Amino acid sequence: MTDSVSTSSSVSQKPAMKDEGKFVELPDAKEGEVVVRFPPEASGYLHIGHAKAALLNQYYQKTFKGILIMRFDDTNPAKENAEFEKVILEDLKMLGVTYDRFTHTSDHFDTLMKYCKETIEKGIAYCDDTEPEEMKAQRDQRQDSVNRNNSVEKNLKMWDDMIAGNENGKKCCVRLKINMKSNNGCMRDPTIYRCKPEEHVRTGNKYKVYPTYDFACPIVDSIEEVTHALRTTEYHDRDEQYYWILDALGLRKPFIYEYARLNMQYTVLSKRKLTWFVNEKIVDGWDDPRLPTVRGILRRGMTVEGLRQFIIAQGSSRSVVLMDWDKIWAFNKKQIDPVAPRFTALLKDQLVKLHLKNVTKEECNQHQKHPKDPSIGMKNVYSGPAVYIENDDAVQITDGQIVTLMNWGNVKINRVQKDTTGKIELIEGETQFDNKDFKNTLKLTWLAETSQAPLTPITCIHYDNIMTKAKLDEGDTFENFVNYGSKTEYDIMGEPDMAQLKKGDIIQILRKGYYICDSPFDGATKQSCRLLNIPDGGTKEKPTSLKSTDTNVTANASGDKSKSSAGATATVKSSPEVDKLVEQIGQQGDKVRDLKTNKSTPKDDVNAAVKELLALKEKYKSLTGTDYKPTNTAGASAAASSSTQKENKKPASAPAATTPSATSAEADKLLEKITQQGDKVRELKGNKSASKDEVTAAVQELLKLKEQYKTLTGTDVPATGAAPARKEKEKKPAVKPAESEHAAGSGHTDLKKQTKLGIEFKKEENLADWYGQVVRKGELIENYDVSGCYILRPWAYFLWEQLKAFIDDEISAMGVQNCYFPLFVSHSALHREQTHIADFSPEVAWVTKSGDTDLAQPIAVRPTSETIMYPAYAKWIQSHRDLPLKLNQWNNVVRWEFKNPQPFLRTREFLWQEGHTAWATQKEASEEVYQILDLYARVYTDLLAIPVIKGRKTEKEKFAGADWTTTIEGYIAASGRGIQAATSHHLGQNFSKMFEITFEDPQTQSKQYVYQNSWGITTRTIGVMTMIHGDNKGLVLPPRIAKYQVVIVPCGITASLSKEDEDALINTCKDVETKLKKAGIRVYGDYRDNYSPGWKFNHWEMKGVPIRVEFGPNDKAQSQLTVVFRHTGDKTKIPVDTCETKLREMLEQMHNDLYKKAKTELDSHTVVVKDWAGFLKGLDNSCIMLAPFCGEPSCEDRIKQDSAQDAVVEEGAPAMGAKGLCIPFDQPEQLAENQQCCHPSCKSKAKYFTLFGRSY
């Protein structure tokens, strides 16, 4: 099935595409006939933006089995470089881009010169010797050049001078004579040829004149038979010029398709700026992993497939966005995680020895390199009486604790030995391999001390962004935002088999991250293996990563070359002379920036200031032995610059707290007291007989001890100083400590892996991404590999079934019967009603093939069912006794929109109900239209708690083929837009006359045409509900439609709770569940023991369950339930005995609260306006406006166009004006007698107040 109305396309099958990618179906694209091109300039290395262009062109080449031309744009001899050509071709090979033809623009220089001369001879081009600055000024001021009206003879003479490259020719250029008054600057007589007597890398000195890219590109595209030219949106203004040139020369015109360029945060993509980084040695070369070059990101560990998937996910969308690097690395992680071998490595300066007294010999065993894929191979894992662990793990260990050595077994800790400063010297323990309880143990990575094989010395290199600002603003000097501390090195020790790693191998170091081998271990020279960290797309640093565990490195601690044993940056020792020099460099740097910012500063003054700055830096280097960098001046100026934060990005991580040695003994005593007092507080809180005063006094004493510790050491109490918290039996990510037992077990101090369980975007800040996450994390939908189509998950389908049941009951009582008609409609049937099909034509999907055979006539997939059902109506209706005929079907329809699909709101396939009725009289038919509209309004108000406005559609917005359309309109405050909620149409006799649906009038025995209605409501209802009620925690489901109105979560099940008490608590929860079910409340008891209460709270909040019941030991003791409202977060207590009555009242109250809130938002954003100024003001305030309107479609078009005001409602989408939503049945007031239409250019009188607004 194809997705275009056109039947000329012979493309029978397209590869599946992910939902994120928006790929245009190229106009007139035919399999085997598409020709695209990738035309880079050979003046630098390819970067990620070029990679997108190359891969997009290849995508269409492969999709249509067409031709890809690799063409070097070598029109500028000064920039063209043979070495760069070689590099670019190598980069394309690395990307897996294969081309069918290889060309240069210079292949066509003779042809281009011929066309240039032709434009001069036709009088549509002229030679101009105006000075460049003056020419630029004339363009800006839209003034003609003195040469614009030269004779053809004079222009040809000047052209000959240019070709000869003589002194007169060097002053000239050739310009097209288009329109110097144009609003498009690209059309103000652009230059198409220049005289540049320079040697060209391919043609040598043969030519003295060279075409501009803008002149050469369209001509060469046409000559090389390019059918579709893909260009970024930044070329949009030049498209008009592109086609003008081809029209002027009578050449074939390719189709231009625009897509958005790839913009990345915290980097630069300009060749000039990238060259500066390389030349200034801020980076190590063009393949430096910090650069966005193809070589750089591949060296850093980006896989070609990961990059390709990322580019395909972006698609050929025109939306201009600033992309976070995390997204591209997240795609890459999906490629490397299933195949990356797992290894263990520990920080060299954090090794702590653990002696295992019951292990007597060293062993070597074979383990899988990847736990899930044995085909990746095996590795040697050594064990023995002594193993190393990291200090950051060791400080969490206490005497008697059970810990787990990963992939080996449990160990009981007998003794932790510390020196006088509190530093751990030695840990002793014994293995307990028979103990298989790993639930509540501290997991440790480890390496054995063995004589069989030495550990592998490794240097791990971590990179940060090269810029400290996400996006440079206009006027920013990029050098001021360079991150000079973007490289950090760590020395680690890895397991012996890591000595076998080869260059390019990608691995995962357990608990540290992913790495790529940049250079292997050299056994002869003992040169350490060098690994480069591969980002994994996570927005937060893992607690066990090298950056987190190495307390010697601050957030900005490393320069490009510097390194110490612990990875910390070498700093310069302070001296009066160094301090003074640092101050002078800073002052001179400020002076240089000020001079560069001031546009009137003479160039010589700037050069002199820069020269002086360089001299000061050279003096600094001779004095200190290191290059000057803002990051290596610690010690100078009170060490201020060594802890400099990364500007406009991330605050520096605070160093881990350490206890000063001078006060270590006293600090240890305090920590012991704090531990004891913490235990006392917990015991008192757990003791039901303890008074509130006792608990308060104990807490105050604990806080007092902590304050004493902070006064003594200057730091807060470290996590390891606190008493070990009781651990929840249920093991899942922790949540914030709650004020009650309902979060018990979630406040422990163990470091947990950071997760992204909740909604990461805020509704008020990023509505589109918020909505996308809510419907996915709320388990309403799952993506599908056909763009614009989605899987409805059970949570969403239940909502639809509730609506369906409600509507079915109502329409059955009205005498409507359900039926089903086929999905397909013939070409002839669909086109019998031209007015009707005209509105749907761009959205109709057609089946054009059966296997490999073309169908004799294409068959449409139904966009609606009028033309499918009404031929049958004509057969079934013969007499007035056959009327009324009232049928309804629940089905799916397909409308192949290309405009930014959004789940539920705008999709290519959706579910709906469509009723089709036939009546003998117009009066009867009209009455049903309003009856159905009232039913739809009740669906929203009574089930979804959403207010709507009932009205009639304007003539322009009515259903195609209808006499008139009624509608209910909703309002989404988060976007300030209205939304059509449901419609009911009176079709009159339009379709009955077309399909000959007639009956014999019993009075006159004459043939009469029936009157018809159609009406429908769709799964859009779910999207409207989500948009209106959802919040920053996820879905908020109205109680009357929610699958579970109440969820019960047992709480307070801790290690100290006996098995009998636990069972009793769970049984009580189940009793309450049974009681509520008998009362007709939809309830679910969440008794899963592998999730913590906090995790469950978050889960059910995201899914929008109206009420959460928490039940713990205190609740059981007092025979009460703790009830939490989803929409407000309010918490209250209710008795168990009357819980069903109370909860039913609360559910009803929640429905009323949701409706009241939505009604307030609607009313406060619905304004009456009388004139155009008020109209625009209301639109700017995200309102929907009741405005006087004449009712004419042409006037409505002007209102929509003139109210757009360049207002972009969605990023990358066109400006959106206001359209007529409906003519409300309830008019706000009586129109004044002479009230004019609201549009200033309309001279007609207003007929009624019409509701206008931006709309989905």
Q: Which descriptors apply to this entry?
A:
32% helix; 32 helices; single chain; 1256 residues; seven-stranded mixed sheet; alpha+beta
Architecture overview:
By secondary structure, the protein is an alpha+beta fold. The protein is built from 32 helices and 50 strands. The protein has an 11-stranded mixed sheet with strand order 30-34-35-41-38-37-36-49-50-48-47, sandwiched between helices. It has a 7-stranded mixed sheet with strand order 12-25-26-27-23-24-13, with no helix packed on it. It is globular.
Q: Describe the largest sheet.
A: 11 strands, mixed
Decide which structural class fits the backbone.
Answer: alpha+beta
pLDDT averaged residue by residue = 84
Hey, roughly how much beta strand do the residues contain?
Answer: 15-25%
**Number of alpha- plus pi-helical segments:** 32
Distance between the termini: 27 Å
Q: Give a count of the beta strands, DSSP E runs of length 2 or more.
A: 50
Oligomer designation: single chain
**Main sheet: strand order:** 30-34-35-41-38-37-36-49-50-48-47
Helix content: 25-40%
The unreliable regions are 1-22, 551-573, 631-663, 719-755, 1206-1215
Gross morphology: globular
* Cα-atom radius of gyration: 37 Å
Concise summary:
With 1256 residues, the chain is α+β, with helices and mostly antiparallel strands.
